[in-house]
Structures are given as C-alpha cells and as structure tokens.
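Progress report, Aim 2. The chain analyzed during this reporting quarter is listed below.
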Amino acid sequence: MNKIFLTVDTECHDIRKENQYIWGKKNGREYGIGRILELGKQYEIPVNFFVDFAEERRYGREYIQRIIDKIKQYNQPIFLHLHPNFISGDESRTFLWEYDKEEQEFLLQEGIGIYTEIMGKSPAAFRAGRYGVDKNTYDLIDELMPDIVELSYTGGYDKMCHIQCEFVNTVNHYSKYKSLKIMPNSNYVALDFFGKRKTVGIDTSEMSLIEFKEFLEEADGKDFVLTMHSWNFIDRYFWSETHVGNHRTNERLFRGMVDLAKKYCYSFASIEGYDFDAEGADSDIKYNACDTVGKKIRSLFLNFWRFQQMAKVSKKYLIIYGFFYSCVIIVVIGAGIKALS
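Predicted structure tokens for the chain:
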C-alpha cells in the first residue's frame, strides 16, 4: 500500500519532430526524457518508462537504442509500449482493437520480439498505445505474456479502451483477468454537469494540484498510477517542427505532486519486482472532483485552464480559445466605448 507507479509513455509520432517528442534539446540542456530522468534522480524515485518499441520498425534500431541507452544510464525500468500502426503501416487503425484477433496476435508477437531482442529478456509490464485493448487483446496477452502487469485499461475512456469497468470490476485499483495483473491507469471525474461527465487521467500535465490533493485524500493510502509522456516538460508548438523549450508550468506541477505525495506518506515504486499478487485487490478509488455545487463551479475554471494548455499543441483548441478571447476583447472594447459615449 501507499505506492505510486509513475509511468512515462515514451513515443514519437513524427520522426521530423523527434526532438520535440523525446529529447527537448536546446542550448546544451534537455527537457525531454533527460529532464525526467534527472528529476527522478533528484527525488530518488523510480520512473517506469513504457517505450514504444514498435517504432523500431519505422525509425530503425539506432533510434530505439539511443532511448534505451539514455534510460539505462539512470538504472530506471523499461517496459513494452506498442502503437500497432508502426508495425502494420495502417495509419487508419491506431488502436489494437481495430484489428481482428489474428492480426493482433501478429502485432503483439512483433512487439514482444523487438523488446526481447533489444532488452535481452521478456517484458514484465505492457501498455497498449492509446489504451486500445479489448477482450481479444487480453486473451492474447495471457497466452503470449502470462503473469504480466497490464496497464492499458482505463475506465471512462470508452472510445479508446474497449475493456469496460464491469469486465474487470474496477476503476482505479488492482484487478485480474486470467494470469494478467491489471493495474488501471488512474482517472477521476473532472467535469460533471447535467449528466455529462468528462473523465481525466491522474496525469502530471492535466491534473491541478488541488484535485491531486483531494485524490490523495480519497485514495487513503491505496496504490495508483500517475502518468506522463516523454514530452511533458518540453514546451512545443504544433505549427513548428523545431521549437522546444522548458515547460515550466508542467515541471512545477510535477514537483508539487511529488511533494504532496510524500506529505501524504506515499512512496514511488517500480512495477518490476513488485508483488501485485501479494497486494491483492482492495476497495476502489472513486474520485469526483465536482460532487458539490462549489466544486462544479470550480471545475469550470479548472477545465478552462486544462484545455487551454492544449492550444499550443492542437490547432482545434487554438481556434476555440482564439475565438473566445476575441469575443472577450470585443465585449470589453464595446463596453468601454459605451461608457465613454
């Protein structure tokens, strides 16, 4: 109990932007996985890296080896992450559940083979790209990687993960399916208005500190997963293929979360070697960040902030927030003109 599994999905969706996704190198400094590794060392905490080994099929062995070598310098654990389109070549199917069982078996075997060849051992934990698993995936993982710790399941993301809460009977705590030890990607209800709910992951770039504090209180010592990506500390723009910088907001948020976790007597743990069977299932963690009228109002501001952060990396959100602020400016100017007339 009282364990947090910090996981880092390490992936590059466009090799032209490798520096923006993986390294974040600028003026002799690194804000990508190098910065994550340095902070892990500074806080003396394990960081569980889920590297997309499928990218080896498109970007080459040298690309993957550079990432592995960097992580190994800090003696942090490395596990299997897999975006199937890098093996299949089919960009219209980026979830494993979009492939039939035979196709999934081939994709998983390829991913396991790449990992085993590079790492010299079988993977101890697995997470599918975009959490895109279904029952076929679980049956195949049980056959191909028995007893593995599986971290693809995430409740409330039905468009991405096709494993339902009822199937594994959990939202945020341990579960099992055949030989699989299921450790869910922890999440919470971040928006709850008129029957419409928005679920957000316990993520170092998406969750506010006040929400994280309340989640820790709700968790009450139960283990959970804290997620991030290789680019969390890299400041980047969707319209630039070269710009990088230090994402200070995300780094401050990360530091605040680590400090809060320690204040609540949590320690960070490696997935590798952790005895999930001995821990067993416990009561679930169900946190709704807007379960009172006051918190509902608060959630509007927090979600406004949360999605505004995406405007730099998403054209859609830039347009939405650009339109919003244009309207605000027009209203303010209009009110000023009216007051002067």
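The first strand starts at residue 3 and ends at 10. The mean pLDDT is 95. These observations will guide the mutagenesis work planned for the next reporting period.
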